[in-house]
Design goal:
This protein has helices at about 1-120, 130-145, 150-165. By secondary structure, it is mostly helical.
Length: about 170
């Protein structure tokens, strides 16, 4: 009877085990079915996305080719603009140098004129005796014209006036 009970107990245990094993296998089958269905949906979505990505890549390639073509057409214009900029830069540098030279010449000319006025006989205040001397020379030599003698005498007068200003 122990054997019969043991066999019956083993049979019941085996039946319970088989029952739960069947239940677990059905649950696993359902899960695998759901995973399979999900994989099919993912595959379908990937196929659709692959088509979209390929289309987008083709459009991007077309746009890139178009942009490269347009850049090649614009390159000579950019080179011309660069060359024009170089020419304008050189021109402005030349104009600047010329203006500096002209200003310096004008400044030197003005300085020379100012120095000439400073030592000029006409602008210096004369004493009455100097004034009479100059008037007498003017009266005598202006009537005769522009001879060498009158030029020499005027030079002597200028030199004497300068010497006198230098001494004071």
């Amino acid at each position: 009877m122990i054997i019969e009970l043991s066999v019956a107990l083993v049979a019941v245990a085996f039946a319970v085990l088989v029952f739960f094993l069947i239940k677990t296998l059905k649950s696993a089958k359902d899960s695998l079915d759901k995973v399979s269905q999900t994989l099919q949906e993912v595959q379908k979505t990937i196929d659709e996305l692959t088509y979209e990505v390929k289309t987008t890549v083709r459009h991007a390639n077309d746009i890139t080719a178009d942009v490269q073509n347009k850049i090649q057409k614009i390159d000579p214009i950019m080179d011309s603009v660069k060359n024009l900029g170089d020419v304008l830069s050189e021109l402005s540098l030349t104009v600047k140098e010329v203006s500096v030279t002209v200003i310096e010449k004008f400044r030197k000319s003005r300085e020379l004129k100012d120095k000439a006025k400073a030592v000029s006989v006409d602008s210096a205040p004369l004493t009455p005796s100097e004034e009479r001397t100059i008037q007498s020379y003017d009266a005598v030599y202006d009537k005769k014209g522009s001879g060498k003698l009158s030029a020499v005498l005027k030079g002597v007068d200028v030199a004497a006036t300068l010497w006198k200003k230098y001494r004071h």
